[in-house]
Amino acid sequence: MNTIIEPFKIKSVESIYFTTTEQRKSILEKACYNPFRIKAKDVLIDLLTDSGTSAMSSNQWAGIMQGDESYAGSPSFFRFEESVKSITNMPLVIPTHQGRAAEKIIFTILGGKGKYFISNTLFDTTRANIEFSGAEGIDLICEEGKHPSIPAPFKGNMDINALQKTIVNIGAENIPMVILTVTNNSGGGQPVSMQNIKEVQKICTENKIPLFIDACRFAENAYFIKMREKGFADKSIAEIANEMFSYADGCTMSAKKDAFANIGGFLAMRDLDLAMQCRNLLIVTEGFTTYGGLAGRDLEAIAIGLQEIMDEHYLQYRIRSIEYLTNKLIEAGVPVMQPAGGHAVYIDAKKFLSHIPVEQYPGQALVCSLYEQGGVRGVEIGSLMFGKYDKAGKLIPAQLELVRLAIPRRVYTQSHIDYVSEVIIEVYNNRTGIKGLTIIEETPMLRHFTAKLSPVL
Fold it and tell me: What is the CATH architecture of 59-308?
């Protein structure tokens, strides 16, 4: 059989509110050309993020009913803790209300002026928390990852030679942590190989620098390793995950991704002294050490979701559904990140809208056009999200100008995806009429969430 079916049945449905093109034009204008500012009810297909937007299973909903809301020592925490330990083999587990809370805690403790955090590619909130501490983030994506249209099996890898040179130039004493994001979200949802993880770990060990994994999509990364890396075809996802984490000193995770949960996250590590500092800050900012800003029911949902995500039938369906949309777009000539990533389709906005200069944010212009054409909401991952200004106020553009269409887990069917492809292809065929955008209001950090823009006249 060639058809890969959804490995689940639908038990409950939610109605979609249909808007017209004219209505969406008005909505977009009122939202100042920023889809983050659009009400969710006015979106037909919401691909803004796969974070917290998954459909939970019947077992997770049943677990929610068993959630124990004791302030300290809840049995729900111990089930959560055991689930995390079974995957990471890390003895110290600290719950947080979501991934960026875990980042806030760890970077507050380890960051500060004169410090540098090195990554394959930092995502927006990770970089923001690093910079908020006064430290700087450095991205060292491998050469293959810089070329969206050229396929390679592990384009999320870190550049090993660049890592060694950067450590020499900066000094190991000024680098509190190296972070591997798996899969590499800002780099097109591309996986990191086990070999690369081992090589990074070797360099970190030699220089006495802790290695952490940003584990939001650890199971999807493990599945790519199983499919693409020699020696892993016969290993289970759990075995591959265990090996991935064995090379790390700690990890952060937003459980809103590969745990199917609507909220939650955690820090896990091996260093008792660091864990004590993290727990002290957790109590001040999040909550007690056995709930960390989460309800007991959320801890239950995460504990169950972390096990469900490692089902190979689900992961095969998940990765294949991303490939399905990617391949349809490639056949139509749409420039996309190749090969398909793990959780999203990434459109190369710089090539898609080659007539729009980066100073006019082609990715954001494309995001707006997709919404106007078909009510599809995506997110720009380019110079609006990651661009900086030099001392003269001129834009320093991002390395890539991408539009991410993140597919929520267990939410949309093939017909929804077919519709998305039709919208993208229609916009592509009429792309020359799309205008760039200019920023009229922005914040100093994470400006893409709330920025106001207007079309270039």
Answer: 3-Layer(aba) Sandwich (3.40)
